[in-house]
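Dear Dr. H.,

I hope your travels went smoothly. While you were away I took the liberty of generating a structure for the chain from your last submission, since the lab meeting agenda had it listed for discussion. I wanted you to have the full record in hand beforehand rather than looking at slides cold. The sequence, exactly as received, is reproduced here:
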Amino acid sequence: MSQGKAKIVEFRGEKITLAELSKRTGIGVATLRTRIVTCGKSVEEAATVPVRKKSRFGGRHPVNVPRPVPKFKRHPSGRAYSRWKMLGKVNERYFGKHGTTEANTAYRRFAQDWTAGKYDAATESGMKSAGGISVAALAEKWLSHVRDYYTKDGKPTSEVRTCTAAARLLIESGENRLAVDFDPAALRTCRQLFIDRGGVRASVNAYVGRIVRMFAWGAGQSLVPPTVHGALKLVEKLKAGRSAAPDRAKKRPATDAQIEATLPHLAPTDAKRRAKLVTMIRLQRLTGMRPGEVCALEAGDLERTTDVWIYRVGKANKNRHRGKAQTYYLGPKAVSLLAPYLEGNPAGPIFGEGPEDYSQAIIRASVKAKCRWTPHQLRHALATEVAEKFRSLDYAAAAIGDTRAVAEAFYVHMDPQMRAKIEIARAMG
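The corresponding predicted structure, in token form, is as follows:
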């Protein structure tokens, strides 16, 4: 083929260079060389077959030419969907279960919107004005963030389960909707689904709040316009007595009678464990600790330099991520309960009980005693007792290591000024 660097070929009885042949035929030198050397074609064939102008692999869609509606496909999950690429980003739109009338109807609506130009490429704050991410896709991305963010000591917190439940119902109510189209009316529709499933008012408000947070996260990630989150924040919370959602009965403190009736039913086949569980319950009742805090108590967490011991909660501190310390003060009764378990300065949690095992043991025993209660109600019992005895919400909050507002809203179950009111009524009423 070649003579030196000239790359001479014989074309129709004439010896010419590839450069000259390229000028005559309009076919590039590289294309001619590839056809002859790599593909093994004759010079005649290489120089006469026209070059395909349009790539068989597609390419960039022409500007200002209507794009065909994306195809209706079946996802491996069994859902119907369409996929298309626009502005360098792959978009997906889901329509429900494949093969159903609902999915077919949703796709027809999508095709009409597409033909009407709703999904044409346009930029608005760096986003497409009408295309973009669906509610289902946004929820999936948010849950991935939730699973990474809500962890403590390498384990997911209970917030992951709650956010997953909220996202599941959200997808169920608005899977076919674009996130940019999710407005206050759609949020109220989703909220009604929570109510219809039997959710109580506080839980419904909490779930809706998490959905609003999801759109706030999406706005921060440039997945939805900030105006979407701003509009959703305007949806009012359900008020007590003014919604179809029932109010859950406020959790009451465990009474001393309930506690004493439960103790004999603890760990019926293990006397040693029963004694330990009794100690933990009595310690919780005296200090107002949370169940996880009494289970996590270690000798190294205790400051025993005075007659009142100080328990500085470590890994079990619920508010550690907020930078708040949790401290409990143990008086003579609590010290006498703990002392036998501290002999030899043991390493690790001194009781060796996990929070779930501890809670289940108490619940099972209280059910047998026909007075069901949970260990968290021991915290309520101390806060209520302190508020009544000292006539102070501040004292109640200090006793359980929480804020005055939280103590008043959740833990104190009587008016701390009740005694004063009774005395006033006796004297003046």
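Two observations you may find useful: Residues 135-232 form one domain. The longest helix spans residues 201-220.

With kind regards,
E. W.
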